[in-house]
Amino acid sequence: MTLRPATLLAPAVALAACASYPVPVQRLADAEASSRSATEVGATSSPQAQLHLTMAREEIAEAKKLMSAGDNEKADYVLLRARGDADLALALTRETEAEASASEVAVEVAKVQARFASTTVTTSATTRTTVGGAP
Amino acid sequence: MRLASRMVLPAAVALVGACATTTPRELLDARTAYDRASQGPAATLAPAELHSARETLTVAEQAFADHGDSDRTKDLAYAAERKAELADVRAHTVAATQARTASAAQLQALKDEELRATSAELSDANQRLSQQGGQLRNERQRREDAERAAALAEADLARIASIKHEARGMVITLSGGVLFESAKSELLPAAQAKLTEVADALTKQDVDSRIRVEGYTDSQGSLSFNQELSQRRADAVRAYLVGHGIAADRVTAVGFGPAKAIADNASPEGRANNRRVEIVVQPANRPADQP
Question: What ipTM was assigned to the predicted interfaces of this complex?
Answer without folding.
Answer: 0.77
